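ugh ok so i messed up the first submission bc i forgot one of the chains. this is the corrected input, ALL of the components this time, i swear. 779 residues overall. if the numbers dont match what u have on ur side tell me asap before i send this to the collaborators (the ones from the other lab, u know who)
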Amino acid sequence: MKLVLDAEQEDLRSAVRRLLADRSSPATVREVMASERGDDPGLWKSLADLGLLGLVVPEDFGGAGAGHVERAVVLEELGRAVTPTPFFASAVLATDALLALDDDAARAELLPALAGGEKVATVAVAEGGGPWDRTGGATTATERDGGWRLDGTKTPVLAGMVADVVLVLAGTPDGPGWFAVDAAADGLTRTALTGLDPTRRFARLAFAATPARRLVSADPGAALDLVADLAAVALAAEQVGVMQRALELTVDYAKVRVQFGRPIGSYQAVKHGLADVYSAWEHSLSVLRHAAWTADHDRAGLPLAAALARTYIGPACFEAGNAMVQYHGGIGYTWEHDAHLYYKRAKSAQLLFGPPSAHRARLADRLGI
Amino acid sequence: MTVVDEKGSGEYRSRVREWLGAHVPPPTAGLPPAEVLRIAKEYQAALFEAGFAGITWPKEVGGQGLGPAEQQVFSEEAADYDLPTYPLTIGMGMCGPTLVDLGTPEQKQRYLPKLLRGDEVWCQLFSEPGAGSDVASLQSRAERTDDGWVLNGQKVWTTNAQWADFGAVLARTDPDQVKHAGITMFIVDMHAPGVTVRPLRDMSGKSPFNEVYFDDVHLPADGAISPVIGEVGRGWQAAVTMLGHERVSIGASRPSRSNSLGFDAVLALARREGATADPANRERLAELYAHERALQLLNARMRQETQAGRPPGARGSVAKLAGALQLRRAIAVVGELAGADVVAWDPDDALSADVAQGINSAPASSIAGGTNEVQHNIIGERILGLPKEPQVDRDIPFRQLKVGTQGGAR
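and heres the new structure output, hopefully the right one now
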């Protein structure tokens, strides 16, 4: 078990941090989040050029052949900068799904395009705010005229408006199945959702006899579990980045903001609250490093490590966002200050894959309780 | 379920593993104190003979002259056992390493080999009734005489003083200086006339510590071996050195296997109570596990960083604080699972008795070795760099302060 990064991984972090300082500054984030598209195609190309979109993709499919520890480093930085980007949808969810399934043709066709940034993909599993349903939910797939058609509604779908390809879990007569749907397919209606977090975009996807390509999978449910566990690791990384930056900015402010003749950070009420956020970040970082290492080196241990990450880090990250707003006082709950971006990103991350109680129940399952 | 950390292999590790397997005696908890002390000394002597005592201490004082990596290997392997070394922990973890840093060659030769062999037991005498979190406000005083010093005062919460041969004591040597400046650290012979040790009983009913009285205790300075550790008037700096070793010593240790408020024990209680089918209890148990495992992983990460040359320093406070808070969390869960079964139980119900003992022992963890509030300050000030509270007593001679039983001029 390795919980510290090596020099090469630290170099990767520096490179991503430099890129985001340049291309995803607070001012740019504001511009992008107010745009209709909600992300920055120029940044997307830069991420592709640096090989960051295909970090976990094998070299045979145009990727970097690196691992989840490396991808976690990138996601920490994207979280720090609260960058609006379809990275999580495409380079995490959809990429992991293609790798978890057993469809060589789809891999060969799609993975190089995703790694190269020519296409954006996403995964559509959720049907409402609860945890992912392993059966495919109420969305059904039927075989007609030698092809498959989908009927049903998936929501919320991350990056659903900008995705070129959607990987859908749907029920078939012989159990759940995975399907690839072209965003321009007939019978697909995409509706942009209004969101709590302006740096993360979602859509509702309605399928009405929508033509779909069935993806080969020996065990679609197991593939879903793997995608969900790897998503938990990736999200943990984003959350750790959010926490770290929220803490840094708040500590900086507490050192310079003077009230009653002293910097507010000298008051124990504030100091102790920030110490708690720091402690939660140190713990979260350790949980993340373990989960990411497990994703690369101990797949048998991944379900437990991933469930731990969801249970521990979700509330810890939101508490950091909350503390950021609170200790900034009046300026902290203005639109103009960035505190609300961290607060909202933390909350959307915590609830993205269902309620916290479902995360704890999943952890209890995996502990054999 | 049991979580096993990966330990790796290596020649040193297998030697340690083999030796521990052959030499660690059964747990000594519950034995009469004299037995506990005898077994500790015997074990330490065997450890010394085998070349595993003072792993990071220099060879010239009887240590092994190895690095933190070997120390860590030993700690990891030893975590599988309840070692019998409790009476020796203060000497090995705090007083000894401080003498290595600050002692004169004569002091090192006199004290360290006997400490390493388990021949002599040490205690540390810092806290006083009026000087808890604010140790620098201590009132014990040492005054010069023709042939040394004479020590007067009262110390409290002194772990292991009941079997100590020597103590490292902080005393004020110049009350006209500001409070941090006029302090000196001394070696005191705990068998000298005028030393009185009385056990203090804590709220769990055990007596893990003592109060110690010094009445005109003579600290001889006439021979070659000085009683002063470091320099006269620089006792505070010596104390900081010692507390740094304490942090390392706590950081290197792992929670005992027999933690009655640990996840494994609480899960066993839940199963006995038939409480694991309830969804709310399952979530409570999951959350308890999450916090315990996160702390284990933090400790593991800090150990790996230590090996990579980045010791945790003040970050040890994060683990210390989290460990104390975890006990409070566990107490809340235990109450939900067992209700009145941990309030009253049959005399032969060992599980309930252990858990209740855990409930009554837990508050000590939030106070001893630095309160949760002090740990928060350390994290806030030394890690995050937040400004200190204004210190009203900083520039005033000690004699004029209101501390303990001293009224003060202001």
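quick check: Chain A touches chain B at residues 1-4, 251, 254-255, 262-263, 265-268, 270-272, 274-276, 278-279, 282-287, 289-290, 308, 311-312, 357, 360-361, 363-364, 367-369 (CB under 8 Å). that seems consistent at least. The longest strand of chain A covers residues 202-215.
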